[in-house]
Amino acid sequence: MNLVALQNALDNTSFAVLFLTVLIYWVGVAFPKIPYLQVLGTAGMGIANLCIAALLASRWIEAGYFPISNLYESLFFLAWGVTAIHLVAERMSRSRLVGAFAAPLAMGIAAFAALTLPSEMQASAPLVPALKSNWLMMHVSIMMLSYATLMIGALLAIAFLVVTRGKNIELRGSSIGTGGYRLLSKTSSAAPAEELKVASPTKANTAVLNAVSAEIATLSPQRLTLADTLDNISYRIIGLGFPLLTIGIIAGAVWANEAWGSYWSWDPKETWALITWLVFAAYLHARITRGWQGRRPAILAATGFAVVWICYLGVNLLGKGLHSYGWFF
Known about the structure:
Layout: H1 3-30, H2 37-63, H3 71-93, H4 96-116, H5 119-122, H6 135-163, E1 169-172, E2 181-185, E3 194-198, H7 206-211, H8 214-217, H9 221-260, H10 268-288, H11 295-318
Antiparallel strand pairs: 1-2, 2-3
Helix pairs in contact: 1-2, 1-4, 2-3, 3-4, 3-6, 3-9, 4-6, 6-9, 6-11, 9-10, 10-11
């Protein structure tokens, strides 16, 4: 089997495994009492991660350069990053809900790359002169890893919003998770907010619980504990992705100065990378300095999910710039 045939087999296998993994995670969420589904889902994400790694390695051997120079390669590198960060986040949260959100994202990326792109866009091609630099591996790989990490963190924030069912609830407590948190429900615009301090869901004071609004009462202690976990893990994952994004932007500025004689040109890709940085900087500022937790920062992180996609794909669809030769990377 030549390398091209191997790559075709690996990308199709990656998609097929991710498709089955999505079904496993969704069935596990719908029927949580069925044993071993989370283990199977984790195994599926691990197998897909290895298949994508093998695909990228074969591209590297075939082309002779780090395989991240066109849309097909960058999409699979992004899918690899999503599956890798998912495994970390799932281990931290021990919740199948992480996979229920992350697996469809990875599958969608792999499907777009393997099934939608024409064959000429999937083929390896010689690097254009501007990409023949050692900065290619450092800048682009770090940016893609930061995108994958921030996407997973933002997805967990979206999962938090789903778990809390859109109720006007704020978790208040340690951002690193101490087992204690506060619930905040604004019952009306005129009335002051009522707060409940919970040392653990099973020891909540019944009299205080009865005084809290019906919005809080609709959420079980187990669901509130899961929400607290998702909130903390989302914060940690975004806290990992933000430094990667910062390093990637700095590396890109140095490379731009080397290639074009300017550190910053306000290219559409550069501008949206800055917007992405500002959105997640605002999220971390709110968490660290203002002590926000729960719904408000989750909405900000969910906004960041859309901004990352605009930065990665949107600006190349809407206009041209200095990055257009790389086709969406």
